[in-house]
Automatic annotation (TrEMBL):
SMART domains from the UniProt entry: PhBP
Highest taxon in the source lineage: Eukaryota
Keywords: Signal
Protein name: Uncharacterized protein LOC108562253
Pfam families in alphabetical order: PBP_GOBP
Gene field: LOC108562253
UniProt xrefs under InterPro entries: PBP/GOBP, PBP_GOBP_sf
Residues annotated as signal peptide: 1-16
Cell membrane in keyword set: no
Length: 126
């Protein structure tokens, strides 16, 4: 099962990430979907519905996936890991940092969603 399209929708900063080279990613996605009762089957289409992320379970799924993928530590995106592991450009890192600094959410799951939506807008995925 390929999650490349899913990840592009899921992790806005991942638009430039190459998750196909991350063999643990699919396992993390399946594990997090079970932990947070989130059905990921809808993301196998080439046009995933962004509205599905509006539930709290989906937002916590996002957070779980970022934590298990080492993209997020202590509720902060690890920009070095993102840059090194996924070889994104400096522009994506700068936009991600701006969105992290702009975030006002205190709930960890809501915060991840807020950051993701911000980055998506900045890199024109939404």
């Amino acid at each position: 099962m390929k999650f490349v399209v899913f990840v592009t929708a899921l992790v806005a900063i991942a638009s430039a990430f190459d998750f196909e080279n991350d063999p643990e990613f699919e396992a993390h996605a399946l594990e997090c979907s079970k932990e947070h009762s989130f059905d990921i089957s809808g993301f196998q289409s080439s046009n995933p519905d962004f509205d599905i992320f509006e539930t709290h379970e989906a937002k916590c799924f996002l957070r779980c996936l970022l934590v298990k993928s080492n993209i997020m530590k202590d509720d902060v995106m690890d920009l070095e890991v993102i840059k090194q592991k996924y070889q994104v450009g400096d522009d994506v890192i700068v936009k991600t940092k701006e969105c992290m600094e702009k975030s006002v959410q205190t709930d960890p799951c809501e915060k991840v969603y807020e950051i993701e939506m911000c980055v998506m807008k900045k890199i024109n995925l939404n």
